TrEMBL record:
Keywords: Activator, Nucleus, Transcription, Transcription regulation. This is Mediator of RNA polymerase II transcription subunit 7. Component of the Mediator complex, a coactivator involved in the regulated transcription of nearly all RNA polymerase II-dependent genes. Mediator functions as a bridge to convey information from gene-specific regulatory proteins to the basal RNA polymerase II transcription machinery. It comes from the Eukaryota. GO terms for cellular component: core mediator complex; mediator complex. Component of the Mediator complex. Belongs to the Mediator complex subunit 7 family. The lineage of its organism: Eukaryota, Metamonada, Anaeramoebidae, Anaeramoeba. InterPro entries: Med7/Med21-like, Mediatior_Med7, Mediatior_Med7_sf. Its main location: nucleus. GO terms for biological process: regulation of transcription by RNA polymerase II. It holds the Pfam family Med7. It is found in: Nucleus. Signal peptide: none annotated.
Amino acid sequence: MRSELYRGMFLSVTEDKSNKNFSFSIFGEQFSTRFSIPQFEDLKNRSENAKQLFEDLKGNEINELKKLNHSLLFLFYELVDLLLKNPDLFSSKIQAIENVLVNFHYIIDTIRLHQAREMIIDISKDQIERRKKAIQSIEDSLISSQKSIKDVIEKIKNKK
């Protein structure tokens, strides 16, 4: 009963019957099950100072993530150094770190579709393997049962 109350307060779900999309609201923010790869401009709406730090990905996501990771570590080091020397000037480093994180977030979002596809392939392979093992187990049980039935029939014939 409480869960129904909370569900009504914080979670509402609507279904679009025409194209099987669901949208839902959690704590007043709307979400949709329809997936699309976001554009970098969409992330700019969340962070006003976001600048794209990479040219074009074209399958080079891992290298770009590594570069951004190195940049993030370097900026963090600079931030710590700046906080020791002149704590009043930290805001520019915070903005630079935020920009790197926004770029990181964007690149990770672009590879989620590939990750989901690979995950489904792995799950499907596991299911196929489990089903093959189950079928083999059933076939082994069937052969064993048939052998037992033949043995019983032979014993009955021999007793007559």
